[in-house]
DNA sequence: TAGATTGTTAATCGATTAACAATC
DNA sequence: TAGATTGTTAATCGATTAACAATC
Protein backbone atom coordinates (compact mmCIF):
# COMPACT_ATOMS: atom_id res chain seq x y z
CA UNK A 1 0.00 0.00 0.00
CA UNK A 2 1.31 3.37 -1.04
CA UNK A 3 -0.25 6.53 0.32
CA UNK A 4 2.48 8.87 -0.81
CA UNK A 5 0.65 10.02 -3.90
CA UNK A 6 3.61 12.18 -4.90
CA UNK A 7 5.41 8.96 -5.86
CA UNK A 8 2.73 7.94 -8.33
CA UNK A 9 3.67 8.60 -11.93
CA UNK A 10 1.62 10.87 -14.16
CA UNK A 11 1.06 7.90 -16.49
CA UNK A 12 -0.98 6.23 -13.75
CA UNK A 13 -2.79 9.40 -12.73
CA UNK A 14 -3.90 10.16 -16.26
CA UNK A 15 -5.64 6.78 -16.35
CA UNK A 16 -7.67 7.41 -13.19
CA UNK A 17 -10.46 9.44 -14.83
CA UNK A 18 -11.03 6.59 -17.24
CA UNK A 19 -11.42 4.08 -14.41
CA UNK A 20 -13.76 6.53 -12.74
CA UNK A 21 -15.91 6.79 -15.85
CA UNK A 22 -16.14 3.04 -16.46
CA UNK A 23 -16.98 2.36 -12.82
CA UNK A 24 -19.77 4.91 -13.06
CA UNK A 25 -21.15 3.04 -16.08
CA UNK A 26 -21.00 -0.24 -14.17
CA UNK A 27 -22.86 1.30 -11.24
CA UNK A 28 -25.57 2.50 -13.58
CA UNK A 29 -25.85 -1.03 -14.91
CA UNK A 30 -26.17 -2.24 -11.32
CA UNK A 31 -23.03 -4.33 -11.47
CA UNK A 32 -21.65 -4.53 -7.94
CA UNK A 33 -18.35 -6.34 -8.28
CA UNK A 34 -15.74 -6.65 -10.97
CA UNK A 35 -12.41 -8.40 -11.40
CA UNK A 36 -9.37 -6.82 -12.98
CA UNK A 37 -9.83 -9.31 -15.81
CA UNK A 38 -13.37 -8.21 -16.60
CA UNK A 39 -12.47 -4.55 -16.23
CA UNK A 40 -9.56 -5.15 -18.58
CA UNK A 41 -11.92 -6.43 -21.24
CA UNK A 42 -14.11 -3.33 -20.90
CA UNK A 43 -11.53 -0.62 -20.60
CA UNK A 44 -8.72 -2.00 -22.73
CA UNK A 45 -5.86 -1.85 -20.22
CA UNK A 46 -4.24 -5.14 -19.18
CA UNK A 47 -5.52 -6.73 -15.97
CA UNK A 48 -2.00 -6.54 -14.65
CA UNK A 49 -1.82 -2.81 -15.27
CA UNK A 50 -5.18 -2.26 -13.59
CA UNK A 51 -4.03 -4.07 -10.45
CA UNK A 52 -0.73 -2.18 -10.47
CA UNK A 53 -2.47 1.15 -10.93
CA UNK A 54 -5.00 0.64 -8.17
CA UNK A 55 -2.37 -0.58 -5.79
CA UNK A 56 -0.53 2.70 -6.01
CA UNK A 57 -3.29 4.13 -3.84
CA UNK A 58 -4.28 1.23 -1.63
CA UNK A 59 -5.55 -2.33 -1.56
CA UNK A 60 -9.07 -1.77 -2.79
CA UNK A 61 -9.67 -5.35 -3.91
CA UNK A 62 -10.20 -8.65 -2.22
CA UNK A 63 -8.54 -11.90 -3.27
CA UNK A 64 -10.93 -14.33 -4.84
CA UNK A 65 -13.61 -11.66 -5.15
CA UNK A 66 -12.34 -8.71 -7.12
CA UNK A 67 -13.29 -5.09 -6.55
CA UNK A 68 -16.47 -3.62 -5.15
CA UNK A 69 -17.61 -1.27 -7.92
CA UNK A 70 -19.17 1.43 -5.77
CA UNK A 71 -16.35 1.46 -3.25
CA UNK A 72 -13.72 1.68 -5.96
CA UNK A 73 -15.66 4.42 -7.73
CA UNK A 74 -15.82 6.44 -4.53
CA UNK A 75 -12.17 5.89 -3.69
CA UNK A 76 -11.00 7.00 -7.12
CA UNK A 77 -13.32 9.97 -6.88
CA UNK A 78 -11.64 10.95 -3.64
CA UNK A 79 -8.16 10.48 -5.07
CA UNK A 80 -9.16 12.80 -7.92
CA UNK A 81 -10.55 15.29 -5.41
CA UNK A 82 -14.07 15.05 -6.82
CA UNK A 83 -15.68 14.89 -3.37
CA UNK A 84 -14.79 18.55 -2.91
CA UNK A 85 -16.22 21.72 -4.39
CA UNK A 86 -14.17 24.24 -6.29
CA UNK A 87 -14.81 27.89 -7.01
CA UNK A 88 -14.09 28.85 -10.61
CA UNK A 89 -14.19 31.70 -13.07
CA UNK A 90 -14.10 31.60 -16.85
CA UNK A 91 -12.19 34.23 -18.78
CA UNK A 92 -13.38 34.58 -22.34
CA UNK A 93 -17.14 34.26 -22.72
CA UNK A 94 -17.23 33.34 -26.40
CA UNK A 95 -18.50 30.03 -27.72
CA UNK A 96 -15.85 28.00 -25.96
CA UNK A 97 -16.26 29.77 -22.61
CA UNK A 98 -20.01 29.31 -22.80
CA UNK A 99 -19.61 25.67 -23.78
CA UNK A 100 -17.45 25.06 -20.70
CA UNK A 101 -19.87 26.96 -18.47
CA UNK A 102 -22.62 24.59 -19.57
CA UNK A 103 -20.55 21.42 -19.71
CA UNK A 104 -22.44 18.71 -17.82
CA UNK A 105 -19.59 17.03 -15.94
CA UNK A 106 -18.21 20.44 -15.03
CA UNK A 107 -21.46 21.26 -13.24
CA UNK A 108 -22.01 17.78 -11.89
CA UNK A 109 -18.70 17.30 -10.12
CA UNK A 110 -18.72 20.37 -7.91
CA UNK A 111 -17.02 22.94 -10.08
CA UNK A 112 -18.90 26.02 -9.08
CA UNK A 113 -18.83 28.86 -11.60
CA UNK A 114 -18.88 32.26 -9.88
CA UNK A 115 -17.83 34.63 -12.62
CA UNK A 116 -17.49 35.04 -16.38
CA UNK A 117 -15.20 37.68 -17.85
CA UNK A 118 -14.72 39.15 -21.29
CA UNK A 119 -13.43 42.24 -23.06
CA UNK A 120 -16.30 42.51 -25.53
CA UNK A 121 -18.62 45.35 -24.40
CA UNK A 122 -21.53 43.71 -26.21
CA UNK A 123 -21.41 40.75 -23.83
CA UNK A 124 -21.41 42.83 -20.62
CA UNK A 125 -24.46 42.19 -18.50
CA UNK A 126 -25.41 39.07 -20.43
CA UNK A 127 -26.03 36.06 -18.26
CA UNK A 128 -24.93 32.44 -18.67
CA UNK A 129 -26.39 30.07 -16.10
CA UNK A 130 -27.33 33.08 -13.95
CA UNK A 131 -23.77 34.37 -13.97
CA UNK A 132 -23.23 37.92 -15.22
CA UNK A 133 -20.52 38.47 -17.76
CA UNK A 134 -18.16 41.08 -16.32
CA UNK A 135 -15.39 43.24 -17.68
CA UNK A 136 -12.02 41.57 -17.49
CA UNK A 137 -10.69 44.63 -15.63
CA UNK A 138 -12.63 43.40 -12.62
CA UNK A 139 -11.04 39.95 -12.75
CA UNK A 140 -8.21 40.38 -10.24
CA UNK A 141 -10.35 41.91 -7.49
CA UNK A 142 -13.11 39.37 -8.06
CA UNK A 143 -10.75 36.40 -7.80
CA UNK A 144 -9.20 37.77 -4.62
CA UNK A 145 -12.47 38.68 -2.93
CA UNK A 146 -14.21 35.44 -3.77
CA UNK A 147 -11.18 33.25 -3.11
CA UNK A 148 -11.49 31.66 -6.54
CA UNK A 149 -9.48 28.44 -6.80
CA UNK A 150 -9.60 27.68 -10.53
CA UNK A 151 -9.35 30.05 -13.47
CA UNK A 152 -10.43 28.77 -16.86
CA UNK A 153 -8.79 30.52 -19.78
CA UNK A 154 -10.92 30.52 -22.93
CA UNK A 155 -9.38 33.61 -24.52
CA UNK A 156 -7.41 33.98 -27.75
CA UNK A 157 -3.77 32.99 -27.35
CA UNK A 158 -2.51 36.57 -27.52
CA UNK A 159 -3.91 37.51 -24.11
CA UNK A 160 -3.70 34.17 -22.32
CA UNK A 161 -0.38 34.86 -20.59
CA UNK A 162 -1.61 38.24 -19.42
CA UNK A 163 -4.74 36.66 -17.93
CA UNK A 164 -2.64 33.96 -16.28
CA UNK A 165 -0.47 36.67 -14.70
CA UNK A 166 -3.54 38.42 -13.30
CA UNK A 167 -4.89 35.16 -11.91
CA UNK A 168 -1.54 34.36 -10.34
CA UNK A 169 -1.35 37.77 -8.69
CA UNK A 170 -4.82 37.22 -7.27
CA UNK A 171 -3.70 33.92 -5.66
CA UNK A 172 -5.33 31.40 -7.94
CA UNK A 173 -4.52 27.72 -7.24
CA UNK A 174 -5.06 26.22 -10.66
CA UNK A 175 -5.55 27.18 -14.27
CA UNK A 176 -7.43 25.16 -16.88
CA UNK A 177 -6.03 26.55 -20.10
CA UNK A 178 -7.74 26.25 -23.47
CA UNK A 179 -5.59 28.82 -25.27
CA UNK A 180 -3.05 27.27 -27.65
CA UNK A 181 0.00 28.53 -25.78
CA UNK A 182 2.09 27.21 -22.90
CA UNK A 183 1.51 29.76 -20.19
CA UNK A 184 4.19 30.40 -17.58
CA UNK A 185 3.26 30.46 -13.92
CA UNK A 186 5.09 30.08 -10.60
CA UNK A 187 5.43 26.63 -9.04
CA UNK A 188 2.56 27.08 -6.63
CA UNK A 189 0.07 27.38 -9.50
CA UNK A 190 -1.04 24.22 -11.29
CA UNK A 191 -1.79 24.37 -15.02
CA UNK A 192 -3.69 21.79 -17.02
CA UNK A 193 -3.83 22.41 -20.75
CA UNK A 194 -6.42 21.42 -23.31
CA UNK A 195 -4.76 22.01 -26.63
CA UNK A 196 -7.54 21.33 -29.10
CA UNK A 197 -5.46 21.99 -32.17
CA UNK A 198 -2.83 19.47 -31.07
CA UNK A 199 -5.53 16.84 -30.86
CA UNK A 200 -6.83 17.80 -34.30
CA UNK A 201 -3.34 17.63 -35.79
CA UNK A 202 -2.85 14.14 -34.39
CA UNK A 203 -6.07 13.09 -36.09
CA UNK A 204 -4.74 14.61 -39.30
CA UNK A 205 -1.48 12.69 -38.89
CA UNK A 206 -3.27 9.41 -38.28
CA UNK A 207 -5.44 9.88 -41.37
CA UNK A 208 -2.27 10.17 -43.43
CA UNK A 209 -0.24 7.49 -41.74
CA UNK A 210 -1.13 4.74 -44.19
CA UNK A 211 -0.01 6.91 -47.09
CA UNK A 212 3.30 7.73 -45.47
CA UNK A 213 3.71 4.02 -45.04
CA UNK A 214 3.05 3.31 -48.73
CA UNK A 215 5.73 5.77 -49.82
CA UNK A 216 8.39 3.74 -48.07
CA UNK B 1 16.76 8.40 -41.73
CA UNK B 2 13.50 6.61 -41.21
CA UNK B 3 10.62 7.11 -43.60
CA UNK B 4 8.50 4.28 -42.32
CA UNK B 5 6.27 6.45 -40.20
CA UNK B 6 4.40 3.42 -38.94
CA UNK B 7 7.45 2.61 -36.82
CA UNK B 8 7.37 5.93 -35.02
CA UNK B 9 5.91 5.70 -31.55
CA UNK B 10 2.83 7.67 -30.53
CA UNK B 11 4.94 9.37 -27.85
CA UNK B 12 6.95 11.04 -30.59
CA UNK B 13 3.95 11.83 -32.74
CA UNK B 14 2.10 13.52 -29.90
CA UNK B 15 5.02 15.91 -29.53
CA UNK B 16 4.95 17.01 -33.18
CA UNK B 17 2.13 19.57 -32.85
CA UNK B 18 4.11 21.29 -30.11
CA UNK B 19 7.21 21.57 -32.30
CA UNK B 20 4.97 22.89 -35.03
CA UNK B 21 3.54 25.56 -32.76
CA UNK B 22 6.91 26.73 -31.42
CA UNK B 23 8.41 26.87 -34.90
CA UNK B 24 5.49 29.02 -36.00
CA UNK B 25 6.24 31.40 -33.12
CA UNK B 26 9.89 31.55 -34.15
CA UNK B 27 8.95 32.35 -37.73
CA UNK B 28 6.74 35.19 -36.53
CA UNK B 29 9.69 36.50 -34.55
CA UNK B 30 11.77 36.28 -37.73
CA UNK B 31 14.21 33.79 -36.29
CA UNK B 32 15.56 31.74 -39.16
CA UNK B 33 17.69 29.08 -37.54
CA UNK B 34 17.68 27.26 -34.26
CA UNK B 35 19.74 24.56 -32.57
CA UNK B 36 18.25 21.69 -30.63
CA UNK B 37 19.76 23.28 -27.53
CA UNK B 38 17.96 26.59 -28.00
CA UNK B 39 14.72 24.85 -28.93
CA UNK B 40 15.11 22.74 -25.81
CA UNK B 41 15.23 25.84 -23.66
CA UNK B 42 12.05 27.18 -25.26
CA UNK B 43 9.95 24.07 -25.47
CA UNK B 44 11.12 22.19 -22.40
CA UNK B 45 12.12 18.88 -24.02
CA UNK B 46 15.77 17.83 -23.81
CA UNK B 47 17.96 18.67 -26.79
CA UNK B 48 18.68 14.99 -27.14
CA UNK B 49 15.00 14.15 -27.35
CA UNK B 50 14.43 16.84 -29.94
CA UNK B 51 17.17 15.44 -32.18
CA UNK B 52 15.88 11.90 -31.69
CA UNK B 53 12.31 12.94 -32.48
CA UNK B 54 13.17 14.84 -35.62
CA UNK B 55 15.39 12.07 -36.85
CA UNK B 56 12.48 9.67 -36.90
CA UNK B 57 11.30 11.52 -39.99
CA UNK B 58 14.50 12.59 -41.67
CA UNK B 59 17.72 14.55 -41.29
CA UNK B 60 16.30 18.04 -41.20
CA UNK B 61 19.29 19.62 -39.51
CA UNK B 62 22.81 20.50 -40.48
CA UNK B 63 25.88 19.86 -38.34
CA UNK B 64 27.39 23.03 -36.97
CA UNK B 65 24.34 25.06 -38.00
CA UNK B 66 21.19 23.63 -36.48
CA UNK B 67 17.76 23.60 -38.08
CA UNK B 68 16.25 26.00 -40.58
CA UNK B 69 13.09 27.18 -38.82
CA UNK B 70 10.88 27.60 -41.87
CA UNK B 71 11.99 24.36 -43.48
CA UNK B 72 11.43 22.40 -40.28
CA UNK B 73 8.06 24.03 -39.77
CA UNK B 74 6.98 23.04 -43.26
CA UNK B 75 8.30 19.51 -42.93
CA UNK B 76 6.49 18.91 -39.66
CA UNK B 77 3.36 20.41 -41.17
CA UNK B 78 3.58 17.89 -43.99
CA UNK B 79 4.18 15.01 -41.60
CA UNK B 80 1.05 16.07 -39.73
CA UNK B 81 -0.84 16.31 -43.00
CA UNK B 82 -1.56 20.02 -42.59
CA UNK B 83 -0.71 20.79 -46.21
CA UNK B 84 -3.94 19.06 -47.23
CA UNK B 85 -7.57 20.06 -46.93
CA UNK B 86 -10.16 17.98 -45.17
CA UNK B 87 -13.93 17.97 -45.50
CA UNK B 88 -15.69 17.87 -42.15
CA UNK B 89 -19.10 17.91 -40.51
CA UNK B 90 -20.02 18.69 -36.93
CA UNK B 91 -22.73 16.73 -35.19
CA UNK B 92 -24.22 18.59 -32.24
CA UNK B 93 -24.61 22.32 -32.85
CA UNK B 94 -24.73 23.41 -29.21
CA UNK B 95 -22.13 25.64 -27.58
CA UNK B 96 -19.34 23.17 -28.08
CA UNK B 97 -20.16 22.42 -31.70
CA UNK B 98 -20.35 26.13 -32.43
CA UNK B 99 -17.10 26.75 -30.60
CA UNK B 100 -15.35 24.14 -32.76
CA UNK B 101 -16.94 25.55 -35.92
CA UNK B 102 -15.40 28.92 -35.10
CA UNK B 103 -12.10 27.65 -33.69
CA UNK B 104 -9.31 29.62 -35.38
CA UNK B 105 -6.78 26.85 -36.00
CA UNK B 106 -9.55 24.60 -37.23
CA UNK B 107 -10.35 27.10 -39.95
CA UNK B 108 -6.76 28.08 -40.59
CA UNK B 109 -5.30 24.65 -41.25
CA UNK B 110 -7.62 23.51 -44.00
CA UNK B 111 -10.39 21.81 -42.10
CA UNK B 112 -13.34 22.73 -44.24
CA UNK B 113 -16.70 22.62 -42.50
CA UNK B 114 -19.47 21.54 -44.89
CA UNK B 115 -22.31 20.63 -42.57
CA UNK B 116 -23.68 21.07 -39.06
CA UNK B 117 -26.24 18.64 -37.65
CA UNK B 118 -28.49 18.63 -34.63
CA UNK B 119 -31.72 17.13 -33.33
CA UNK B 120 -33.09 20.35 -31.85
CA UNK B 121 -35.83 21.69 -34.18
CA UNK B 122 -35.20 25.22 -32.89
CA UNK B 123 -31.74 25.20 -34.43
CA UNK B 124 -32.83 24.04 -37.90
CA UNK B 125 -32.12 26.62 -40.57
CA UNK B 126 -29.80 28.60 -38.32
CA UNK B 127 -26.47 29.38 -39.85
CA UNK B 128 -22.97 29.20 -38.35
CA UNK B 129 -20.23 30.53 -40.60
CA UNK B 130 -22.65 30.31 -43.54
CA UNK B 131 -23.36 26.66 -42.87
CA UNK B 132 -26.97 25.65 -42.35
CA UNK B 133 -27.78 23.51 -39.35
CA UNK B 134 -29.50 20.39 -40.65
CA UNK B 135 -31.49 17.58 -39.11
CA UNK B 136 -29.33 14.69 -38.00
CA UNK B 137 -31.53 12.34 -40.06
CA UNK B 138 -29.85 13.78 -43.14
CA UNK B 139 -26.35 13.05 -41.81
CA UNK B 140 -25.67 9.72 -43.47
CA UNK B 141 -26.69 10.81 -46.97
CA UNK B 142 -24.85 14.09 -46.63
CA UNK B 143 -21.60 12.43 -45.57
CA UNK B 144 -21.80 9.96 -48.41
CA UNK B 145 -22.73 12.50 -51.09
CA UNK B 146 -20.13 15.05 -50.07
CA UNK B 147 -17.40 12.50 -49.38
CA UNK B 148 -16.86 13.88 -45.88
CA UNK B 149 -13.57 12.75 -44.38
CA UNK B 150 -13.86 13.85 -40.75
CA UNK B 151 -16.90 13.74 -38.46
CA UNK B 152 -16.76 15.82 -35.29
CA UNK B 153 -18.99 14.52 -32.52
CA UNK B 154 -20.16 17.26 -30.14
CA UNK B 155 -23.29 15.49 -28.90
CA UNK B 156 -24.21 14.25 -25.44
CA UNK B 157 -22.59 10.93 -24.59
CA UNK B 158 -25.84 8.96 -24.90
CA UNK B 159 -26.03 9.35 -28.68
CA UNK B 160 -22.33 9.46 -29.56
CA UNK B 161 -22.01 5.77 -30.43
CA UNK B 162 -25.10 5.95 -32.62
CA UNK B 163 -23.67 8.93 -34.50
CA UNK B 164 -20.34 7.14 -34.87
CA UNK B 165 -22.15 4.15 -36.37
CA UNK B 166 -23.89 6.37 -38.90
CA UNK B 167 -20.64 8.06 -39.84
CA UNK B 168 -18.95 4.70 -40.23
CA UNK B 169 -21.70 3.40 -42.47
CA UNK B 170 -21.32 6.50 -44.63
CA UNK B 171 -17.59 5.80 -45.10
CA UNK B 172 -16.05 8.41 -42.85
CA UNK B 173 -12.25 8.29 -42.46
CA UNK B 174 -11.83 9.88 -39.06
CA UNK B 175 -13.81 10.95 -36.02
CA UNK B 176 -12.89 13.75 -33.64
CA UNK B 177 -14.87 12.83 -30.56
CA UNK B 178 -15.76 15.29 -27.80
CA UNK B 179 -18.35 13.09 -26.11
CA UNK B 180 -17.15 11.54 -22.84
CA UNK B 181 -17.35 7.95 -24.04
CA UNK B 182 -15.01 5.61 -25.88
CA UNK B 183 -16.78 4.98 -29.14
CA UNK B 184 -16.26 1.73 -31.01
CA UNK B 185 -15.47 1.80 -34.71
CA UNK B 186 -13.92 -0.62 -37.22
CA UNK B 187 -10.16 -0.54 -37.81
CA UNK B 188 -10.37 1.55 -40.95
CA UNK B 189 -11.83 4.49 -39.02
CA UNK B 190 -9.48 6.64 -36.93
CA UNK B 191 -10.74 8.14 -33.69
CA UNK B 192 -9.15 10.96 -31.74
CA UNK B 193 -10.77 11.78 -28.42
CA UNK B 194 -10.91 15.05 -26.51
CA UNK B 195 -12.14 14.08 -23.08
CA UNK B 196 -12.60 17.43 -21.37
CA UNK B 197 -13.73 15.99 -18.07
CA UNK B 198 -10.64 13.80 -17.83
CA UNK B 199 -8.50 16.88 -18.17
CA UNK B 200 -10.54 18.69 -15.52
CA UNK B 201 -10.25 15.74 -13.14
CA UNK B 202 -6.48 15.72 -13.54
CA UNK B 203 -6.42 19.39 -12.58
CA UNK B 204 -8.54 18.53 -9.55
CA UNK B 205 -6.11 15.75 -8.64
CA UNK B 206 -3.10 18.00 -8.95
CA UNK B 207 -4.70 20.66 -6.75
CA UNK B 208 -5.06 18.06 -4.02
CA UNK B 209 -1.75 16.31 -4.47
CA UNK B 210 0.05 18.30 -1.80
CA UNK B 211 -2.62 17.43 0.74
CA UNK B 212 -2.43 13.73 -0.04
CA UNK B 213 1.27 14.06 0.50
CA UNK B 214 0.87 15.71 3.91
CA UNK B 215 -1.35 12.88 5.15
CA UNK B 216 1.45 10.40 4.69
C1' DT C 1 41.02 25.17 -39.89
C1' DA C 2 38.37 25.49 -35.44
C1' DG C 3 33.96 25.56 -33.46
C1' DA C 4 29.42 24.17 -33.40
C1' DT C 5 25.93 21.04 -33.68
C1' DT C 6 23.84 17.27 -35.77
C1' DG C 7 22.81 12.19 -36.37
C1' DT C 8 23.19 8.02 -34.13
C1' DT C 9 24.70 4.45 -30.97
C1' DA C 10 24.93 2.95 -26.33
C1' DA C 11 23.45 3.44 -21.46
C1' DT C 12 19.94 4.47 -18.35
C1' DC C 13 15.67 4.99 -16.70
C1' DG C 14 10.81 4.13 -16.17
C1' DA C 15 6.63 1.87 -17.37
C1' DT C 16 4.28 -2.30 -18.62
C1' DT C 17 3.60 -7.13 -18.46
C1' DA C 18 4.16 -11.75 -16.55
C1' DA C 19 4.14 -14.77 -12.87
C1' DC C 20 2.89 -16.53 -8.63
C1' DA C 21 2.45 -16.70 -3.60
C1' DA C 22 -0.92 -14.95 -0.44
C1' DT C 23 -5.54 -15.11 0.90
C1' DC C 24 -10.42 -14.38 0.58
C1' DT D 1 -11.68 -27.09 1.21
C1' DA D 2 -11.19 -25.66 -3.77
C1' DG D 3 -11.41 -21.91 -6.86
C1' DA D 4 -10.77 -17.33 -7.86
C1' DT D 5 -8.42 -13.28 -7.88
C1' DT D 6 -5.72 -9.96 -5.64
C1' DG D 7 -1.19 -7.76 -4.24
C1' DT D 8 3.42 -7.73 -5.33
C1' DT D 9 7.91 -9.11 -7.08
C1' DA D 10 10.64 -10.03 -11.02
C1' DA D 11 11.26 -9.82 -16.12
C1' DT D 12 10.56 -7.41 -20.20
C1' DC D 13 9.89 -3.86 -23.03
C1' DG D 14 10.10 0.83 -24.64
C1' DA D 15 11.28 5.56 -24.17
C1' DT D 16 14.53 9.00 -22.67
C1' DT D 17 19.06 10.65 -21.91
C1' DA D 18 24.04 10.69 -22.49
C1' DA D 19 27.91 10.54 -25.28
C1' DC D 20 30.56 11.20 -29.18
C1' DA D 21 32.05 10.52 -33.96
C1' DA D 22 30.71 12.65 -38.23
C1' DT D 23 30.52 16.76 -40.68
C1' DC D 24 28.99 21.33 -41.85
From TrEMBL, chains A, B:
Main function: Modulates transcription in response to changes in cellular NADH/NAD(+) redox state.
Which residues does NAD(+) bind? 92-97
Chain's gene name: rex
Task: Offer a single GO CC term for the protein.
Answer: cytoplasm
How this chain assembles, per its entry, is: Homodimer.
Q: What is its main location?
A: cytoplasm
Q: Which residues form the CoA-binding domain?
A: 81-182
Q: Does the keyword Transcription apply?
A: yes
Residues annotated as DNA-binding are 18-57
Name by which UniProt lists this protein: Redox-sensing transcriptional repressor Rex
Q: Which organism is the protein's source?
A: Alkaliphilus pronyensis
Amino acid sequence: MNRDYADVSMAVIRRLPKYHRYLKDLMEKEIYRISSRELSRLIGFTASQIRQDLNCFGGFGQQGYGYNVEELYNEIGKILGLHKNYTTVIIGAGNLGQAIANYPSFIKYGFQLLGLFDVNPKLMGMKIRDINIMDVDLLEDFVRENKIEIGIICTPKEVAQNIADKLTKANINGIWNFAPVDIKVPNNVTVENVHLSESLFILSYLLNEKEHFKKK
